[in-house]
Specification:
Helix content is about 50%, strand content about 5%. By secondary structure, it is an alpha+beta fold. The chain has two domains: about 5-275 and about 415-460, 2-methylcitrate dehydratase PrpD (Orthogonal Bundle); about 280-405, 2-methylcitrate dehydratase PrpD (60s Ribosomal Protein L30, Chain: A), CATH 3.30.1330.120. The protein has a four-stranded mixed sheet. A two-stranded antiparallel ribbon has the order 1-2. Strand 7 (about 385-395) and strand 8 (about 400-405) form a beta hairpin. The longest helix is centred in the first third of the chain and has 21 residues, at about 25-45. The protein is globular.
Length: about 475
């Protein structure tokens, strides 16, 4: 039996992370995480559903501590981070974290980067400290994802159950909390969990702010612990703790083992990155259809039906909605996504955001040709974002496509150059070329910066 609680042992690990001990590929991936988040935040800041949240939060005002991406508005650090994290997970283009067994840990970039950059503006954090804090946040999410899968399977959103702990780890690091205060901060964060995944059944744009709620909880939990507030050290394994209430288990062994492995295989290296603005489960079907169209010169008029075999979770998370009523519903819709690819030759974010597309009769007609099937025999564990596709043509021919690891997943990762190109594409639609170049140049030398708080002010449309 462990003599120290899970929160205490996790805090020990968080505090022990040192930049000097990080492998070069981990440091490089942390900088990629910052770059990817900023690009996603910028394009998401132009979306109407996110603008609603920005307007409500900014109207309240408060101490001017940290910058809101694109707008340049300065708000209290926890509120600026709330808005930026909402942007960071607000258009389905951000990263996702999974281990070799398919255990998911949410979208760690949006859980961590907004915290580091907001607090970096508040208290002059150097680049190396920011990198170490972000890595510690990714690692916290990665480990909790391995030990708390029951919550995800029950329908709680990882962004809202794991996210507050990952954000707290980052904030605790940058506030300089010791292991005791960090453990209390994690315990306090346990009182701020929330978020369910009904959005993948019923749509609704409230899901956009799950990451924002998580980072606000993380910053506030760390600040409260710094001030002396305490939390229950048994927050994970207690009778009324997170494991029993959310993950529906009293078995602490998986989480114990995961925390014992903290830093042995860095979680940030298991981050996957998206090219299409849909849930990660739908990246592979779009890639496969795109290839089939290019190789066989087919169009929607040629197709009798499309059958897609995927893992159970991919079906549950990406194939429940075929006639979306809002952008969120469209972005978790396999049928809608494939119909867009066939009819518009694109899966651009603007198409998902266009209300006319949701009820377009041609899109709905083609959507009805798509049929999803569970296939846990072929797609389980690390390859559970892959798919097998059979396209049946009206002339009787069939086209078979199969993919284990879609582009962007850790086994088929985007290179730094590809992530830079993605950033240029997203950011260039919002800010000037000079601003894009300045952000890139700054993030690429993040470890040399004396002040990481200079980054977000560069990513604003108001810069001259």
């Amino acid at each position: 039996m462990q003599s120290r609680t899970i929160a205490q042992r996790l805090a020990d690990r968080v505090v022990a992370v040192r930049y000097e001990d990080l492998p070069a590929d981990v440091i490089a991936r942390a900088k990629d995480a910052v770059l990817d988040q900023l690009g996603v935040q910028l394009i998401a800041s132009t979306m109407q559903w996110n603008d609603l949240i920005y307007r409500v939060v900014s109207a309240a005002g408060g101490r001017e501590e940290a910058t809101v991406t694109n707008h340049g508005t300065r708000l209290p650090a926890h509120e600026a981070a709330f808005v930026n994290a909402t942007y960071g997970q607000g258009c389905e283009l951000d990263d996702g974290l999974r281990d070799l067994h398919g255990n998911t840990a949410g979208h760690a970039g949006a859980m961590t980067v907004p915290v580091a950059l907001a607090l970096g503006e508040t208290r002059r954090v150097d680049g190396r400290s920011a990198i170490a804090a972000i890595v510690a946040g990714y690692e916290t999410a990665f480990r909790l994802g391995q030990g708390m899968q029951g919550s995800h399977k029950r329908g709680f959103h990882n962004q809202s159950v794991i996210g507050p702990f990952a954000a707290t780890a980052v904030a605790a690091r940058l506030l300089g909390l010791d292991a005791v205060r960090t453990a209390h901060a994690l315990a306090i964060a346990g009182s701020q969990l929330s978020g369910v995944q009904e959005f993948d059944r019923g749509g609704g744009e409230a899901k956009r702010m799950h990451a924002g709620l998580a980072v606000r909880a993380g910053i506030q939990s760390a600040l409260l612990a710094q001030a002396g507030l305490t939390g229950p050290m048994s927050i994970f394994e207690g009778k009324r703790g997170v494991l029993r209430l959310y993950a529906n288990t009293d078995d602490t062994a998986p989480l114990d083992a995961a925390i014992d492995g903290f830093g042995s295989e860095w979680g940030i290296l298991r981050a996957g990155h998206k090219l299409y603005p849909v849930v990660s489960n739908l990246q592979s079907p779009i890639f496969q259809l795109e290839e089939a169209i290019a190789e066989h010169k087919i169009s929607a008029d040629d197709i009798e039906r499309i059958d897609v075999w995927m893992a159970t979770h991919s079906i549950e998370h990406g194939a429940s909605i075929s006639e979306p009523k809002d952008a969120m519903g469209a972005q978790v819709s396999l049928a809608f996504s494939l119909a867009l690819r066939l009819l518009r030759g694109s899966n651009d974010l603007s198409l998902y955001a266009d209300p006319k597309m949701w009820s377009d009769p041609d899109v709905l007609r083609v959507s009805r040709l798509v049929h999803a099937h569970n296939d846990d025999a072929r797609f389980i564990g690390a390859n559970d974002r892959g798919c097998h596709m059979t396209i049946t043509l009206r002339d009787g021919r069939t086209i078979e496509k199969h993919e284990e690891y879609p582009k962007g997943q850790p086994e088929n990762a985007l290179s730094h150059a590809e992530l830079e190109a993605k950033f240029r594409r997203l950011a260039g639609a919002v800010i000037s070329k000079r601003a894009v170049d300045d952000v890139l140049a700054t993030v690429n030398v993040l470890e040399r910066l004396d002040d990481a708080g200079t980054i977000v002010p560069l990513a604003t449309a108001s810069r001259t």
